[in-house]
Amino acid sequence: MQHKSNGLLSYSNALTTRFEESSLIIYNSGFTCTVVQGRDFVTGNKVAIKLVQKKKLVSDAEIERARCELKFHSKLANSNIVPLLACEETQEGFLTVTPYASDGDLHELTHCTTLTEEAARNCISQIAAAITYMHDEKRLVHGDIKPHNMLLRKINGKYVVQLCDFGFTEELRPVTDDVLFTQLKGTSGYFAPEQLLGRNYDGKVDVFAMGVIAFTLIGGYEPFYPPDNMAEAVEFEPRYWRHISNEAKDFLTRCLSIDPQQRMTAKEALEHPWMTMQISQQDSMEDALAPPPDSSIEFWNVNDIINNKRSETKEEASQITANDGPMKNGCFTPTPISHLAAMLACADVAAGPQKGP
């Protein structure tokens, strides 16, 4: 059955058979990109439908960049990466459909507060897992790691982080294992020193940006100010950091190394002792300048996610999901369900994109 649309889906040749859009605009850049909320006819779940119009892209290079975003995203299937449900390129533009993130993003959640060390560590463990997967298994550098690109799903009271937006993603060159620098791409405040210097780079730029996020989540301020002032190694002001473990400071120091040769890889970050250590109760912060962290915000550790996925088969997980929410087997739900493994198993299934002709 064909469902007509007067909005974004009017640009589609195939997606209207599975999705319908609402009038609710989630995001509108005013230039090239519009995102609206929609619904999946098969599951009844809410989705996010994104359109990039070709006529608003100023060059063939920008059109190719949009095309590469679809290509790279369609390769990815990981619990900490937003699954691509469907995508299509038409004469008019590029359409993508992903699950609707009803719990917002990391920036919305944390831009006015700090996290406990444990919550920050667990959050960062998921980001490290996502970029390790991209670097080591797919040979891709995300290129725009920032809180706005970390969508959240709250499952049993704790957040799962999912990486999105692959518009600046680049493939590592086969011989040199790096990306040829052509221009500065990404977001100010999260650039690594080698990018600011106009040098070729690799996945360690993602690690640097992850370090900026981790530092800010715990300390409440940026590690370098202004953001391009990186003449010296990062420092930890005692009034903000005396209650934080030495392992956390070592992790941050190694993520934020000015020299990329001294900086950790994503895999090394994921295997750092801070990722699995028992974090003791924080000391009193009566003499600290920063307000106390919001202890009500909790994240799953990536090891909890991995262990939960191993404990259930996908068939069992799908059965749990079908009993707990308005969805069919093998589809991703945006609402909290009773078992973390069920959500993650269904996310993996949903990650296989349905492409238009």
UniProtKB/TrEMBL annotation:
Pfam families: Pkinase. InterPro entries: Kinase-like_dom_sf, Prot_kinase_dom, Ser/Thr_kinase_AS. It comes from the Eukaryota. Keywords: Kinase, Transferase. Residues 21-275 form the Protein kinase domain. Gene3D superfamilies: Transferase(Phosphotransferase) domain 1 (1.10.510.10). One of its GO terms (molecular function) is ATP binding. This is Serine/threonine-protein kinase Kist. It comes from Perkinsus olseni (Perkinsus atlanticus). The lineage of its organism: Eukaryota, Sar, Alveolata, Perkinsozoa, Perkinsea.
